[in-house]
Predict the 3D structure of the following.
Amino acid sequence: MTLPLAKTYAPMEALPASELPSGRNWQYEPKWDGFRCLAFRDSAKIDLESKSGKPLTRYFPELVDTLAALKAKKFVLDGEIVIPVDGNPSFDHLLMRIHPAASRVLKLSKETPSVFIVFDLLVDDAGKSLIKATLQERRTALEKFARKNFKKDGLLRLSPATSDLSMARKWFHMGVGLDGIVAKRTDLPYQSGNREGMQKIKTQRTADCVVGGFRYLEKAKQVGSLLLGLYDQAGLLDHVGFCSSISNEERPALTKKLQKLIKPPGFTGRAPGGPSRWSTKHSLEWEPLATKLVVEVQFDHFTGGRFRHGTKFLRWRPEKSPRACTMDQVQREHRAAMGLL
C-alpha cells in the first residue's frame, strides 16, 4: 500500500479559548512549546512536515534516524518537536535548527538532540487510515503503537493525556516548559484542517501576526517598529497594531533583512496611517513588505479591530504560514486564560 501524500492530512487546529471546557467528552493534553509536525513513513521513505506543509526533514536528522529504526514500516504520527535544554523545551534552540548548512544542522543535532512528542496516530503500522476513527479510538491505538515502538527516554515520547479536569489545571499552572493546555473532543474523528473539536488555553495571550510593513526610527535609518497584520474573513490583510520591542543590538541586521523585502502593498485591507491628533508626518510614513514574515507577539487587549496597546515581541515563527495568521486567534480571547478558575 502506498502511503497517502502529506497534504492529505492537514493537521487539526485549535480555537483559542479563555477557560478549560468540561464534560465527559473532553481530553486534556499539555500544549508543548515547539514545532507542530506530521511524521510520515512508507518503508524507507520518511518525511517530516510542519503544520503549514513546509518540509522539516533536513533540520532534524536525529529524528529521521530514530523513525527509520522503528519496527513499524508504515505510519503517520502527529506531534510536536521540542528541544529540551535544562529540562525544559527551548524554542530558541529550535530556531537555530532552521539553518541552510547541513553541517551546522548535524552538529546541533548531536549537541542538543530534539524530541518528538506524539499525541495522535493517523495511519497505523498496518497502513490503515485512522482519521475517521474517534480520538478515543485513535488514542488507544497510539498507546499500543508507543508500547511496541517507543523506547523509554528515547527521542520519541507519548504525550500525556487525561480526562481529569483537576489534573489539566495542575498542568496549566506548571508554567515553565508548557505553552498551555489543549482540550480535544474524544467523540469526534480527526478534524483535518479545521478547528472543530479542539481548543487551546494558553498561559499568556499571544497571536501569530504577519509583518506587513515597518517604520524607521525618527532620527535614524533603522527599523523602529514592526507593523502587524491579520487576515480577515475576506482574505485581506488588515493592519492590527505594532511592535517596537526591538533591541538596539538587533536593529542593524533586522533593518537589512526588512529592506530586502520591501514591496507594496503590504496590507491589502485596512492599512496603517490615517491622520489623528497624535500623528506627525513621520508617524504616517511606513514601508510595505512582502508578506513572508510571521512573528509571535504577546498582547493584553484586542478591541476595535486592533491591539489596544503596543505588543511585546516574543519570537519569529519561520515554520508558520502567513495565511494561517487570521483574526480568529484574537476574537475569542476576551478574558485572561483561566481567569475564572
Summary: The longest strand covers residues 206-216. Confidence is low (pLDDT under 50) at residues 1-7, 275-283, 332-341.
